Amino acid sequence: MGHTITLGAADGHSFSAYQAGFADAPRALVVVQEIFGVNHHIRAVADGFADAGYFVVAPALFDRAERGVELAYTPEDGKRGMALRSAIRPEDTLADLLASAEALGREKVGVIGYCWGGALAWAGATRSQRFSAAVGWYGGGIAATKDLHPNCPVQLHFGADDDHIPLADVEAIRAAQTGIEVFVYEGAGHGFGCSERPSYVASATALAQERSLAFLQHNL
Question: Out of 47, 115, 157, 169, which one is annotated catalytic?
Answer without folding.
Answer: 115
